[in-house]
Amino acid sequence: MNELSGDNFEYLLQLTKVLANECRQTRQETDKIELLFKRVAKQSAISYEDLSAKVPTETLESYEKLSTPNTIDQLINENYALLYKIEQRDYINAKIFALINNINDHLASIKNFVIEQKFTREQDLENFVYENIEAKRNIVNANMENLKKKKP
């Protein structure tokens, strides 16, 4: 779980960096446009305030008519939205596959642990039997042999 949250934070960090970069570029473009307006105002001998005054409503309406997206633009925007969804699903699928691989690794390590415990349990039982029964029986037999030798 910690690994996944780290990936999420990394993704958010990358997204924040991209958005900050885009914001900076947009601000630079706005500054360039303002500089161009000032140059146009200077060359046409009109003050910048007059040039940047409120645009008449007729002009705004004609601009809105021209800027409304046609069917091709709508299809392009829909395609971009679909591509974004596909990229999101690919990202989620990659994370799910990574999670499945982690689960498989954990299951394999649990299986190996169980096998190792079975093997060591048998060895521990043999060691216990030898240490507590066989070794003591050998000591008793050796002591009996010593007693038989001393008893003529």
How would the blueprint of this fold be written?
Layout (H helix, E strand, L loop, with lengths): L1 H42 L4 H4 L5 H11 L3 H80 L2
Write up what this structure looks like.
This protein has 152 residues and is mostly helical. The chain folds into 2 domains: 1-53; 71-152. 90% of the residues lie in helices and 0% in strands. The model has no long low-confidence stretch (mean pLDDT 84).
Percent of residues in β-strands = under 5%
Separation of the first and last Cα atoms: 78 Å
Oligomer: single chain
Number of helices: 4
Domain tally:
2
Give the total of beta strands. Answer: 0
Average pLDDT for all residues:
84
Could you give a short description of this structure?
With 152 residues, the chain is mainly alpha-helical. It contains four helices and no strands. The two termini are 78 Å apart.
Supply the key terms:
mainly alpha; 2 domains; rod-shaped; 152 residues
